[in-house]
Amino acid sequence: MKEQLEQLRKQTERSDRIAADTALENKRLREPLEQANIQLNEFRRKLEFYERDKQQLSRLKSRNTKLEKKVKGLTWEAETLILRNDSLVAERESLKERFNDVIVELQQKTGLKNVLLERKIAALMREDEKRSIVLHETIATCAPNFADKLTSLDERVGSIIDEKNKIIIDLRYEVAKARK
Length: 180
Fold this sequence. Notes:
The protein is an all-alpha fold. The protein is built from 2 helices and no strands.
C-alpha cells in the first residue's frame, strides 16, 4: 500500500505537473489565439470592405461604359451639327452673294430705265416747247384777237403740265425707293 500511495502521489504529481504544463501551455497559446481571432475579425471586416468596394467598382465600370457610349453619341451628334452648320453658313453666304448680285443688277436696270425716262421727258419737254411756240406764232399771225384766249389756254395747259410733272416726281420717288 505504501507503494500504491507512493505511486498515486507520483501519479498525482505527474498529473499536477501535466496540468500545470497544460495550463501554462494554454496560457501561452491563448494570447496567440486571441491575436489570431482579432486578426480574423479584422480580415473579415477588410474582406467585407473589399467585397463592397469590388461591387462599387463593378457598378462604376458599368456606369462609365454607359457614359462613354453616351459621350461618343453626343460627340458624333455634335460633329454632325457642326458639319450641318458649316454647310448652312456656306449656303447663307451663297444666297447673300446672289441677293447682292440681284440687287446690283436691279439697280443697274432701274438706273438705265431712269436715264431713258429722263431723256424721253427732256425730249417731250423740248417738243412741247416747240409746239407751243409754233402754236403761239400761228395764232398770233392768223388771228390776232385770239391772243388773249391763247393766254388763258396756256395757263390751263401749264397747270395740267404742272400736275403731270408732280406725278412724274412722285414716280421718280417710287423708282428711287424701289432701287433701295
